[in-house]
Amino acid sequence: MDVNYEALIPKVGVITDVRIDTPDVKTFRVVTPDGKKAFDHKPGQCAMLSIPGVGEAMFSITSAPTNTEYMEFSIKKCGCVTEWLHQAEVGQQITIRGPYGNPFPVDDAFVGKDLLFVAGGIGLAPLRSVINYCRHYRDRYGKIDIVYGSRSKDDLVDYQEIINEWMEDDGIDVHLTIDREQEGWDGHVGFVPNYVKELNFDTNKTVIICGPPIMIKFTLEGLISMGYNKQQVYTTMELRMKCGVGKCGRCNIGSKYVCKDGPVFRCDQLEELPDEY
Amino acid sequence: MRKFSIQALDTIFAKIAADEKLYLPVDGENGSNYKLWEPGVQMSDALNTVRSAKDFFFPQTENLIEFKVTGKQIDIIDVRNENEDFVVFGVRACDVRSFDILDRVFLSEPIDSYYANRRAHSVIISMACTRPAETCFCGTFDIDAANPAGDITCWKTQDSIYMRANTDKGEKLLAKLDGLTEECDDSAVSAQQDKTRRIMERLPLANLSAEKFGGGKTNEFFNSPAWKELSQACLGCGTCTFVCPTCQCYDIKDYDTGNGVIRFRCWDSCMYSDFTKMAHGNSRNSQVERFRQRFMHKLVYYPENNEGIFGCVGCGRCLAKCPISMNIVKVMKKLGEE
Prior knowledge:
The complex is a heterodimer.
Chain A lengths: L10 E12 L2 E7 L14 E6 L3 E6 L10 E6 L3 H7 L6 E8 L14 E6 L3 H13 L7 E7 L8 H8 L5 E7 L9 E2 L2 H8 L6 E5 L2 H14 L6 E4 L15 E2 L2 E2 H4 L2 E3 H5 L6
Parallel strand pairs in A: 7-8, 7-11, 8-9, 9-10, 11-12
Antiparallel strand pairs in A: 1-2, 1-6, 2-5, 3-4, 3-6, 12-15, 13-14
Chain B lengths: L1 E4 L3 H11 L1 E8 L2 E6 L24 E10 L2 E6 L7 E6 L1 H14 L6 H8 L1 E6 L24 E5 L3 E6 L2 H9 L5 E2 L3 H16 L15 H4 L4 H6 L7 H5 L6 E7 L4 E7 L9 E2 L2 E2 L4 H19 L11 H5 L6 H9 L2
Parallel strand pairs in B: 2-6, 6-7, 7-8
Antiparallel strand pairs in B: 1-9, 1-10, 2-3, 4-5, 4-12, 8-9, 11-12, 13-14
């Protein structure tokens, strides 16, 4: 019997909305041509988006699975595929396949825990899916803290959703920071790792970090010095990917493939991998 | 066991080729390689083909999908047609093992349909080695050159060819050749196997051991200072990965034909500098890291994920083809002495 299903064959997706988040980040809303969600996913999973003739690249799905109507992708302009997407208009068709990778353990390890989300810049994109999932099933989790920082106030992704929805929720504290003083900003100024230390959280929280590698490194060091252990800290990784299904070899690191064994790793598991990320 | 006279080889080939495409090793300007059999084509006597047999299931390039792009609209065209039955004759024990190694990648979920359908439509007829060479070390990975796997195993003696079916597919094909072959005992085959195994024991790499390697040994070897010296002269040409029967890393690229877009897959190499390069940087910036990746994958990472099976079959192609004469044997010896 011949095998019919093929993971490498994508579906057609349509961009139905483009939101300008920051000077270099846009959020794209995607559905199938008949107006449905392309597939179900779990918080932290990724999808391959492509534009035929330009290329294919892996993106985290930034909308939560609890959104049953469409998917959203917050994408920073930094390479061929992303630059092309940034000039795309509503109605543009692209291709989509997935979902790929392991999600954050929102339905097991996170349940009943106080959660601390730490994000830097575009690193909020993969965490937004988790945050909105946890907001939807609010009573499953303890207190939620979100520390989010960017270069400037204009570089904060999802700013409207943060101030209009997250900050309005009970039991959620949002701590925003920007790298340097800026006119019109009366919030905290300083780098994310330092801010996390200043906030002096209880050490019983489960931490979810995503951001530039240097931010992750120093935040993790800070958490350890505060008394956290690595089993409490989760992050999501990014390496070059082509197939998304653990075969093309590109995202191989040690015996793991980031696309199928990740992208979500607990920091103690990450430490077991060779230092190649 | 069945046998037929070597004089009848062409008749046997013709019988097989009457129903299915038949490929076998044929001598050419640059050594032996698999070619389509037609009347008059002679089977090579060479120990092995220059390119490995992986090409049959995982070709160097293949089209995956086509797109028709009209304004903002995209149509996806499924171009898969890997449904032609074919027979590969004369595959050596090392290359037969390589199929098992590739299967564990491409046939694990989600199954790669391009590869899987080619595998399903093929019959592999292996050929036992009689003159293994000094670059051979299949024994290191518990492969018996005198008793290769495959749907059918063949042994060639001076005057006859002996055949044994190992699978249902093999039985079926062998049954088709019934009128051209005769039943026989395995005494001639046993004698030849003994001879081959005695040669194997005397080869220079007969004592090469993979015992020190395997899953769970990442920390033992990853930071070895030996990688620097071993990789120093590596050109990053990727020849080793291209001739390797088990290397299976690939790239996916789009080609705009002017009348649509073809998305194709092609071999890639972890030895290449842009293999892991992405917009925000490169996780393996130096050739030392890229070189290390290839060997760590075959000797540690692959066995870790595959019940201890190594990602090398000891075919010796990289020993023969590397322009700077670096290879997995030297890597194993150097790392093994630490």
